[in-house]
Structures are given as structure tokens and as C-alpha cells.
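Show me a record, fold above all:
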Amino acid sequence: EWPAALRLLVEMQELRVQLDVTTYNAAISNCAKGSQWEAALALLAHLLQMGPGPNVVSCNSTISACARGKQCHRALHLLRDMQLHRIRPDVITYNTAISACAQVQDWSSALQLLSKMPQLGIQPDIFTFNATINSCETDYWTAALELFARLQLHGPRPDLVTFNSTISACSRGHHWAGSVQLLEGVGQLRLKPNVTSYSSTITACAKGRQWQAALAILAEMHQLGHQPNVISYNAAISAC
């Protein structure tokens, strides 16, 4: 728990126990888990001014705290500051920063970060793409589909999170046919769709006034042993 971690940090200072970067990193990590971005930023600032100096772990944890607190602009500012302090970012840094963008649906910044990674010699992984697709869910579903197509051609291999995020993006963009095609593609890549996959697709069909497709997908859920939830039924009812 982050309050206990901060109390121990204060106790160490009172006892004049020398703090090292590992101590600060552990405390910042606890703040990140508790979405305490202000405390994380304060610890990072103290580490810069008084401590032994931060490393990439310190920055990654602080960016994570900002992401959880939906402080996208602060996360991006920290990423830029890493260059000033000659701290080399890694794939975790960028994944966390892109996740911060996804929290506020800032697809433009997320796509910019994704495009910058290869220039820095950082290879995006499936978590990078999933976070970027997630940032496109509300306003830019076509970009989500383009990223999904890129994964199919060049890798890394899409996982169920990739499918669900892209299906959700199509649903929000009222592109019901795209959602249905993606749902069909889950099985082709030997992935098992879950309730989220089906519910998002039914929602897309409802938005497209495709009641027959919605009911067919609901029936498929029963046939395959998936228990529909309230979202599944609400979407199916809305489609009728």
C-alpha cells in the first residue's frame, strides 16, 4: 500500500538511513499502483534534486502513475524530460506513455509515439499495439483497423486483447460489418472469443440496426457455451 511505503520512506530519512534509487523506485511503484501521480511526481523530483538520480525504472513508474491518474500531458512531459536527463527510454516507457494517451483517447499522440519507436531503435511489441488501438476506440476506428492489418502482415501476432479492442473501435465507429469480420477472424487465428468479444460485436450490430446478425451472434454464444451478460442482452434487445 502506498501510504505505508511513504511512511517507511519518511522513517528512513528520520533515522538517517541513506536512500538509494532502488528505495525511491519501490516507493514510486507503490504510488503508481495506487494512482497517486502527485506523490510519484514529488518523489521523482526529490530523486532529481537530492537523491542519487533517477533511472529508467524511476521514470517508467512515474509515467505509469500519471497514466493511471489520466494525466496524459504529464506523462508525455516526463517522456520528453528523459532526454534532458540522458535517460534512455525502453519499450516499457513507450508502452506506458501510449497507455496514458489511451486513457484520454488521445489517438494522435499515441500514433506519434508508435511511429517514433523504430527511429530510436525500440521494437514495438503486442502491448504497444494494443494500447495504441485502444486509444483509437472512440474517434478513429479506421486507424485501429489499419494497425490490426499491419499486425497480421508484419507481426507481432494479435492476441485476444487486440481483437477485442479493434472490435470495440469498430463498434464505436458504427462499423458493424468490421466487427463481425473480426469476430470471425478470432477463431481463424486459434483464439477463443470471450463474452467481451461477442458483446462488443452485438453492440456494433445494434448500432447498425442489424437485428438478425445480433440475434445470430447471441445464439452462437449459447451454442459455444458462453453465458451472455447484461451487456449482451441489452445490445441484442436494442438491435430488435
Q: What stands out?
A: The mean pLDDT is 88. Residues 141-154 form the longest helix (14 residues). The chain has two domains: 1-117, 136-240.
